[in-house]
Amino acid sequence: MLFYSYFKTLVGKEVTVELKNDLAIAGTLHSVDQYLNIKLYNIRVINEQLYPHMKSVRNCFIRGSVVRYLQLPPNSVDVELLHDATRREARGS
Amino acid sequence: MNLDDRVPPPGAALVEDLDKRLLVQLRDGRKLIGTLRSFDQFANLVLEGAVERIVVGNLYAEDPLGLYVVRGENVVLLGDIDGADDPPAVLQKVSIQDIRQAQRAEKEQEKIKKSMKARMDFLDFE
């Protein structure tokens, strides 16, 4: 559950989620679960003029299986910490 | 593992959206609007008073459907539109007949664009 744990540390941060249908949504990460389903608050759709129906959506739940990328704020990624956590997880402790 | 580390079941975040009016984006591009009455860990959904919102350009129409059960794998996104300015002011409501016609026109446009592009590709233009 490394990525679940990792994404949990990002709650409250501003992220951009790119979906497999090319829709990209920026917003504040509100919650994440084991399937990496994501809840974003105060969303802003990238290229909004192409998706006018999204204008009335403020908060949304995104199914984990449709996510292609997550863009994170660079200063919130501690590579060393992730590296260690990866080894710990692989050892199963 | 102590109590605070207990992991909530997947999809539990949807509890907050129960009984709210939601916009459900499906994988085939369709948009359903309905009141969320039930869900499970796969994001299978029960929507009461569901309508399909068909959007073409800045026109839209709503097709009443009734009670819908959506299989989770088809769900892309659930948007909370309860209390928001819905439908968005930029969209103009038309009849279902009109939106179907607009859909056909759009499809025709895309077909033309595609065939033009195919010809261009053949000529090896950028």
The averaged pLDDT of chain B comes out at 90
Helix content of chain B: 10-25%
For the sheet with most strands of chain A, the description reads: 5 strands, antiparallel
Q: Which CATH-level-2 architecture of chain B?
A: Roll
Taking Cα atoms only, what radius of gyration of chain B do you get, to the nearest Å? Answer: 20 Å
C-alpha Rg of chain A (nearest Å): 14 Å
Number of helices of chain A: 2
Question: Per the principal axes of the C-alpha atoms, what is the gross shape of chain A?
Answer: elongated
Strand content of chain B: 35-45%
The stretches of 5 or more residues of chain B where confidence is low (pLDDT under 50) are: none
User: What is the strand tally of chain B?
Assistant: 6
Query: Going across the major beta sheet of chain B, what is the strand order?
Result: 5-1-2-3-4-6
Compact summary:
Chain B: It is found in: Cytoplasm; Cytoplasm, P-body. Chain A has 93 residues and is of the alpha+beta class. Helices cover 22% and strands 34% of the residues of chain A.
How does this structure look, described?
- Chain A: Component of LSM protein complexes, which are involved in RNA processing.
- Chain A: Pfam families: LSM.
- Chain A: Belongs to the snRNP Sm proteins family.
- Chain A: GO terms for molecular function: RNA binding.
- In chain A, 22% of the residues lie in helices and 34% in strands.
- Chain A has helices at 2-8, 79-91, and strands spanning 14-19, 24-32, 38-45, 59-62, 67-71.
- Chain B is of the alpha+beta class and 126 residues long.
- Chain B is built from one helix and six strands; from the N terminus they run E-E-E-E-E-E-H.
- A six-stranded mixed beta sheet of chain B has the order 5-1-2-3-4-6.
- Chain B starts with 20 loop residues before the first strand and ends with a helix.
- The interface between A and B is medium-sized, with 27 and 37 residues.
- Strand 4 of chain A pairs antiparallel with strand 5 of chain B, so a sheet runs across the interface.
